Amino acid sequence: QGVLVPGLGTFAVVHEQINGTEKVYVVRRPVFQLDVDMSCLQELVFPTVMIPGDIEIMPLDYWWLSQTNSLPPDMVKSCVEETILLYSFQLRTRQCPAFTFKNIGILSCQDNVLCMQFYCSCIAGLGSQDIWVALLLT
To answer: Taking every annotated instance into account, which residue ranges of this chain make up the domain CCDC81 HU (predicted)?
Structure first.
């Protein structure tokens, strides 16, 4: 299952088969498909990630988020929307701050390259049998 963060992108977990010299590895790894207004990405390079069509994409659950921080869902939704607008503005004006997702990773821009770097703990938490292969791929 994937999660769509409107105006920013989609997080998902994909299964991949990797052929090693002696073994076929099957790993689960996180991916992030950017969905930011392309006009604010002029001169920025970012990896193209395609989430397979068989993965169900769900919208961000503002009600669930509100339960984790005791704020009303409408306020959580407004905070998320305003944060994404601010981040888009900062990208347009080349401020390029790091955008941290708790327990997931960091969306950052260095040397005009925008990329999502997942925490090792996030990748390890996906339960791949061959965790080192998943870490190397991600």
So the answer is: 57-126
What is the residue type of 22? E
> What distance in Å separates the CA atoms of residue 105 and residue 77, rounded to the nearest whole number?
21
Which DSSP string corresponds to the chain? -EEEETTTEEEEEEEEEEE-SS-EEEEEEEEEEE---GGGGTT-B-------TTS-EEE--HHHHHHHHT--HHHHHHHHHHHHHHHHHHHHTT----EEETTTEEEEEETTEEEEEE-HHHHHTT--SSHHHHHHH-
What crossing angle do the helices spanning 73-92 and 62-69 adopt, rounded to 10°? 100
Strands of the sheet with 9-19, listed across from one edge: 24-34, 9-19, 2-5, 57-59
Identify the pLDDT of residue 106.
93
